[in-house]
Amino acid sequence: SSELTQPPSVSVSPGQTASITCSGDKLGDKFVSWYQQKSGQSPELVMYEDKKRPSGIPERFSGFNSGNTATLTIGGTQTIDEADYYCHAWDRGTHVVFGGGTKLTVL
Amino acid sequence: QVQLVQSGGEVKKPGASVKVSCKTSGYSFTRYGITWVRQAAGQGLEWMGWVSAYSGDTNYAQHLQGRVTMTTETSTTTAYMELRSLRLDDTAVYYCSRGALGAAAGTPLFHWGQGTLVTVSS
User: Which of A22, B43, B73, B83 sits most deeply, having the most CB atoms within 10 A of its CB?
Assistant: First the structure.
């Protein structure tokens, strides 16, 4: 079982804000990354070190991490954002884990 | 541009071994590590381990210790993941990925291979 807990699914209407959470013990003390995986594709990094966006990721993606919860927020959600999202945490490289994943549905 | 191209799918019997390759290009190979991640059908991502292309140092997921070996070959800028004593539940898509410059095992994974399906079946 994963040590990072994500909701199995999140639904949002187009244009609305989607928030996906990732919970773990003292998660705020660790660096969190987020990956988007569309059906049949390899994962893609959309957020790293809690709140940094890789090149090419739209500004509507943002991240926050504090306490025991990290959150990926997608503002003005579009249908192209429909995918599975995974959080990923590490504490200076000694213990690495993915969350169980959240299916984002835009309808 | 950075590319990671993996070897083709494999079908193995329980107890056998499999070795997946990840040919890289577009960057200075020894300045980055390679992380391996797998995903069973319909399931989530599972971190398997990391290997430094500079030193050969490794960091494996605890539950795979003793069955997995990750290596790199500088002359061909290729990374390898070998998994031994295969079980039915090792059936999955295996991904190689590249992290940040000089980073260790927990690095964010900026670039990914296309995945290799390994099927374990009797």
Answer: A22
The residues, any chain, with a CB within 8 Å of residue B41's CB and separated by 6 or more, are B91, B92, B93
> By CA distance, what is A89's nearest residue in B?
B106
pLDDT at A1 over 50: no
Question: Are A33 and B109 a contacting pair, CB within 8 Å?
Answer: yes
- The answer to whether residues A64 and A70 touch, using CB atoms and an 8 Å cutoff, is yes
Binding-face residues of B in 33-62 toward A, CB within 8 A:
37, 44-47, 50, 59, 61
Measured CA distances, B59 to A6, A93, B3, B33, B51 (Å): 25, 8, 23, 11, 7
Closest CA to A87 of A53, A55, A47: A47
Chain A residues bordering chain B (beta-carbon distance below 8 Å): 2, 31, 33, 35, 37, 42-45, 48-49, 54, 84, 86, 88-101
Write the DSSP assignment of A46-86 as a string of letters. Answer: EEBTTTBPPTT--TTEEEEEETTEEEEEESS--GGG-EEEE
Task: Determine the pLDDT at residue B101.
Answer: 83
Residue A31 with chain B: CB contacts under 8 Å: 106, 108
Q: Residues with Cβ < 8 Å from B117, sequence gap 6 or more? A: B9, B10, B92, B93, B94
What is d(CA A69, CA A58) in angstroms, rounded to the nearest whole number?
Answer: 23
- Output DSSP code: residue A92: T
Class of residue B78 by CB neighbours under 10 A (exposed 0-12, middle 13-18, buried 19+): buried
